[in-house]
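Re: beginner question about structure tokens

> Can someone show what the tokenized structure looks like for a real chain? I only ever see the sequence side.

Sure, here's an example I had lying around. Input first:
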Amino acid sequence: MPASGHLSGAMLYRTQTQARGLAVAVLLACGPLGYTLPAQVIAGEPAWRAGTSLQRRIVGAAPDLMRIPLDAGQFIRLEVIQTGVDLSVSFRDPSAKSVTEVDSGNERYGPETVVAIAEVTGEYRLEVKRNDSREEPNEYTVIVVELRDAVPAGRETVAACRNYAEGEKLIGARTAEASQQAIGRFALAHDYFSQSGERYMDGLATFGLGIAFGQSGELRKAIPWCEKAAALFHAASDQIGRAHV
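And the corresponding structure tokens:
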């Protein structure tokens, strides 16, 4: 019935808004993903190691570029922290081929998570750009969360983050076929993050499932996923709060 359909649409909008708002609140209240920002590197060549934190600025429409030397087989996890500006991130290998591209559903706040394993030795490139070059502020922070030799679990993390990133690209297409493909990608990411205990990333993947089901017209499936995402962001906030005590 039309009335029921309109009600479901309104419920979906409210749950999506709640989930997105909780994702932002977690980051604003507690900092990114439960760790304290390390001391900022102010000048000179960056010391690319776990714990490095860089304050960066984007000038004009061109992306901000950083070169990161990696040895073949190294695992790297970076967080590009958005604080009021919506960013997208590309990570390229020494031949300039794209390794991963990230633009999460958290919009202007929170981390864009870049996870990769270097297949060859050389200088990799991290490129960060504003999705709207007119948007302010133009500052952000890069944090090296992990930099170490790869282990099998690292490849699983890379695959899960890639599935999430691909899901975000697919829902951006806004077609029925792309939405169905996005559901599959988000489901794979959700399965991994729920098992690994990464609640914030699981919240993003779960929220993506709600969006994808909504775009497919399956509102009865979309609403529970958005509600679950809201619960995950609540749990992430509790977890982060305990880490800061």
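Each token stands for a local structural state, so reading them left to right follows the chain. The two ends are 51 Å apart (CA to CA).
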